[in-house]
Amino acid sequence: MDSTASLHFPPLARFRFQFRAQETVRLPPYSGSAWRGLLGHGLRRTACVTHQPQCSGCLLIRSCVYSTLFETPPPPDEVARGFSAVPHPYVLDIDPKAPRVLEPGAHFHLVITLIGPAIGQIPYLIHALGKAGERGIGTGQGRFLLAAVERERSLGADVWPSVFEAEAGEYRQVEIPPIDLPRAPDTARLILSTPVRIKRDGHFLGVRDLSAADLTRSLYQRLRRLAQLYGGTPDAFDAASLFAAPDSLVMRASQLRWHDWTRFSSRQDKLMQMGGLVGEIELTGPDLPLIWPVLWLGQWTHIGKGTAFGLGGYRLLPA
């Protein structure tokens, strides 16, 4: 497999926004909520032309950059069947180990993964985050400048050519080469970097509850839904045939723990508990080569609930 097309999945593009602090920036313990709120406010101010108090009922709800990214209405046929929520076509890639206090002049960055048609909307995000810096972020609303934007040459390559410099003010499209999917190892090691929130029977799973089947089915369900909404082949992400035998995929989670995270929701005017699992997981078994492409792809889409805040992030360690 050498591309997202061969993986039956929409195109993915990762953008790294480079900032420079103008004032002291103090980020919260987990910055995903702050970044999502700042980006949302910036996009709404940039893209909303009707200035309605809410997107529901707006004539432009299916074409406005803000609503398609942040409110993301379900397709009309799903509205008729009562569906109200769909996954957003972006993922915040939050580094929980990044410095929380940045002095004036310090450089820092934010990585955003865009999915399918959302990739074409990157100029709006560049403009929105540039304007958002004037508003500031974190405790004290520390202001910052958008200096440049880079796009990863290919998924996982960690090579980031520049596509925008603030001084020039011009966005340059970069052609992405085909994906080079690594060979499946005998053992897959996953580092869960931001809280992974997976539900079974209406309850979030803890360290003693999570199984290989829970992890894999959650990943397949998310990729299937994204493929359904943003281009791809949903049926390629059907987990029904997996786990024919109890030992077809074995999980070891000796370094897994629950990490609590609380955020304040201005929309609901209350504190929200957003804790989940972090740490290390190992997967082995005869089904590992079968799920390997999906497991590898999920690094960029994340898994579980709260991906719009950067939750559910994981990386595969080299064999």
Summarize the entry for a quick read.
This protein has 6 helices and 15 strands. It is an alpha+beta fold. Strands 3-5-1-6-7 form a 5-stranded antiparallel β-sheet, covered by helices on one side. Strands 11-14-8-15 form a 4-stranded antiparallel β-sheet, covered by helices on one side. Strands 2-4 form a two-stranded antiparallel sheet.
**Biggest β-sheet description:** 5 strands, antiparallel
Contiguous low-pLDDT stretches (5 residues minimum) are: none
* Major sheet: arrangement of strands: 3-5-1-6-7
Count of strand segments: 15
- What number of domains? 2
The percent of residues in helical segments reads 10-25%
- What's the overall geometry? globular
Strand content: 25-35%
Output the CATH topology of the largest domain: Alpha-Beta Plaits
Helix-strand topology string:
EEHHHEEEHEEEEEHEEEEHE
Structure description:
The strands form five sheets. A five-stranded antiparallel sheet has the order 3-5-1-6-7, with helices on one face. Strands 11-14-8-15 form a four-stranded antiparallel sheet, with helices on one face. It folds into two domains: 12-165, Alpha-Beta Plaits (2-Layer Sandwich); 188-317, 2-Layer Sandwich (Alpha-Beta Plaits), CATH 3.30.70. Strand 9 (199-200) and strand 10 form a beta hairpin. It is globular. The mean pLDDT is 89. 24% of the residues lie in helices and 26% in strands. It is built from six helices and 15 strands.
